[in-house]
Amino acid sequence: MKGVSLRNKILLLFLGVIIISSVTTITAVLLATNESVEEHAHEQLNVGRKVFEQLLNIRGRQLFDSAEVLTADFGFKGAVSAGDRETILSVLENHGARIGADLMMLSSLDGSLIASTDIATQQRNLFPFAELLPQAEEDGGLLTVVMLDGKAYQMVMLQVNAPVPVAWASIGFLLDQNLANQLQDLTHLEVTFRGEAKDQKGFSISTMEDARNGAGQSTLLNDEEWQRMSLNDNDYLALLTPLVNTPMYQVSAILRTSLNKAYASFSPLKIQVLLISLVALILSAISAFFIAKNVTRPIHALVMAAKRISGGDYSEDILVGRTSKDEIGELATSFNVMQRGIADREEKILYQVYHDTLTGLPNRILIREEMNKLLQDYQQTEQCFSVICININRFKQVNDTFGYQIGDELLKAFVSRLQSVVKQGATPGRIGADEFLVLHTGTPEPQLPDEINRILSELNTNYMVGEFDISITTCAGVATYPKHGDRADQLLRRADIALNEAKLKKQDVAYYELGADEKYLNQIRLINDLKQAIEQDQLVMFYQPKVDLKQRKVTQVEALIRWFHKELGFISPEEFIGLAEQSGLMPALTRWVIKNVLNEAVVWREQNVNVAMAVNLSAYDLAYDDLPNYVSDLLVQCQLSTESLILEVTESAVMEDPEQALNVLHQFKSSGIKLAIDDYGTGYSSLSQLTSMPVDELKIDMSFVLKLDQSKDDQAIVRSTIEMGHNLGLSIVAEGVENRDSWALLEEYGCDKLQGYYICKPQSSSDFIQWYANYDVLSEYQA
């Protein structure tokens, strides 16, 4: 460099160094920025995928919870076991509407469709997912994504155990535009659901209008996980997430983030870096180095923060740019807002997974986890804990009478009371619509009954809900560790069995009894066999006569059902009638009885046996308004007058739902059929209620007649009842007549009809006809 002064050389050298340094710095910054954009896009898509997967998992848990509630419902299991398609479909529709499910199906174990809320599937009468049943059976349940009629569903398949597997319940949530929009709100990414199938049309659901119309799909050249694509001159980075891939169909989710927007957000930063570099040429190399250093450091910090967030760590705020108002500071602030938002949403979602949304109590999932912790803690000790299932009696009537909003407020008030009455350390939870559970610790087993009675007595009270003063009662089933089991599911099931026993026997508290599992299985078997016995006419009718003291002859018989099981022998009516009421078979059983009794009456008329047939009705029969029409049609078919039939109802049956029961009884009365109050004196009706019943006869319960000749108290009760009944215009029947002395007393008191073993035991039809031909009431007086 001849002719150049040393100063200029130093200046040129300095400028050269500064220029080279500036160019190098600018280049490094640009490269780092582009790399940061790429990494941020990747991390954003990874975060989006994690959020999406977590959302699907949460929906899956909700599906499993809903399926478990459905499959655990005793009435539903009874309907499934009984094969009652109408009840099954009604339960599926109601349960689906309650949880917001888009698809509810029930199939047999071999893959045959039983019921479906999807009309097209129901019309085809074909269960479309039979090929998934083997995997569901192997895994104990299945959560997957399926395609049906050009739509994708997230579906859970769970067995219905009663208690052995009897069917498969399938519940599905639609992968629709709402889910795509929800995911976009959570991740700020463009979301597309795409499905292709061989034998059905494909679909595309997207938050991008062009993608919904099919544009840009061709730019996805392959099924690689990471892809670049262009749509309307915009570059996107896409992440393909397969949801299901079978030979018949494939469903995938595509998450996109705009690279143009990402690069554009860094454009101001690039201009600033360039200006800073130009200033650095004038100021000094040290200033250039300082500026470069302070530019690259925050970018690096943002990249590291993005990696930390993508790993699920939202605990630390990004400090870079906290006080800066430039783009880097805004980006850091946005990162902080984003990670706090994601953390809050995750916390809310996880809370909903483990808690009941209405009451805030732990749900079955969290209760089971708490039980497992207790089991682990108590394994090496001699301590015990109890699982107390509590049911609100007649809660459905509260909803029907006051509406669901009042019902929900009542549940909240009940939960508040429950939390206040249980001891500290006990864990209350909600496991069903009107069923609650208390995980009770710290009370020795001998003191447990007093503690449970205390809890129930404080729960059984009036609750002020708005303007309504609502009185409720509860019942409970109890299982204890280690006496009744050493596994969480086992204890929960056995507490539920005890609760069912309390409901059946109308007890306040029932404790699980060893062997009750077998009894439960036997009840399920009897319910199934009883349904078959009704359908195949395997039941028989016995008849017990009633003697009319005024006419001095037999004028009526009471029809009594009997079941002689082909394997188990004689089954007591007290046992199988209760099961029929629980399982919903009572209407069918009553119709079978009335039909057979009236057909028997036709045969008897041909043999000159002219007596009226008395048939018992239960509370469940009075719940159906169509029963009077059914009976009237049968009388017409058999060409019998209404005087040929007497229907007997108990006081307690009427008191189950007085308004409904009286409505049905008035329909019978208006058609000319005689009605009788059975077992009078053991129910709960008042005299005013008795006068409102459209009855013709009053049957005094046998408990007052069996020892009538020996008990002065019974004589006073029977005499006054007969007098009262006659004053009300009723005919009086005394059942349980065991001897001639009781006969004489009843005749002295003016009783109209007698029934009991002294006259005749219940007999088969053929035996009764023979007895009827030989029996003479006058011989009683001659003797």
TrEMBL record:
InterPro entries to which the protein is assigned, alphabetical: Cyclic-di-GMP_PDE-like, dCache_3, EAL_dom, EAL_sf, GGDEF_dom, HAMP_dom, Nucleotide_cyclase, Rev_trsase/Diguanyl_cyclase
DNA-binding keyword on record: no
HAMP domain mapped to chain residues: 293-347
Domain EAL, first and last residues per copy: 523-776
Domain annotation GGDEF: ranges: 383-514
Residues annotated as transmembrane: 271-292
Segment forming the signal sequence: none
Organism: Litoribacillus peritrichatus
Gene3D superfamilies named in the record: 3.30.70.270, 6.10.340.10, EAL domain
Descriptive protein name: EAL domain-containing protein
UniProt entry keywords in alphabetical sequence: Membrane, Transmembrane, Transmembrane helix
SMART domains, per database record: EAL (SM00052), GGDEF (SM00267), HAMP (SM00304)
Pfam families to which the protein is assigned, alphabetical: dCache_3 (PF14827), EAL (PF00563), GGDEF (PF00990), HAMP (PF00672)
NCBIfam families the record matches: GGDEF
